[in-house]
Amino acid sequence: MRNYVILDASEVSSVDFDQVLETSPSTLRYNLAGTQTFVKYEGNTPSFLEGKTALDRSEMLAVLATEDWSSDDPI
């Protein structure tokens, strides 16, 4: 099962990209303000994410649909 964890942008330096499905900071998706991002992982929780809230796919999609993460502005 795939899990998602939202991180503050300031936490990106602590991400161990060997333990998540993203490959580098440049592959992360940020919210519109650029203040938060998220990582995905499968299996056991990476040690650097322990204590953080893990979301399932439907929960993460609900977050991404909010105005903080997506814009209705077509431009």
Can you offer a commentary on this structure?
The protein is of the alpha+beta class and 75 residues long. It has one domain (2-64). 11% of the residues lie in helices and 19% in strands. It is globular and about 35 Å long. The relative contact order is 0.27.
Main beta-sheet annotation: 2 strands, antiparallel
Into how many domains do the coordinates divide? 1
SSE class: alpha+beta
- Strand content is 15-25%
Write the layout of secondary structure elements.
Blueprint: E1 2-8, E2 36-42, H1 57-64
Antiparallel strand pairs: 1-2
Primary descriptors:
75 residues, two-stranded antiparallel ribbon, single chain, alpha+beta, 1 helix
Give me a quick take on this structure:
This protein is of the alpha+beta class and 75 residues long.
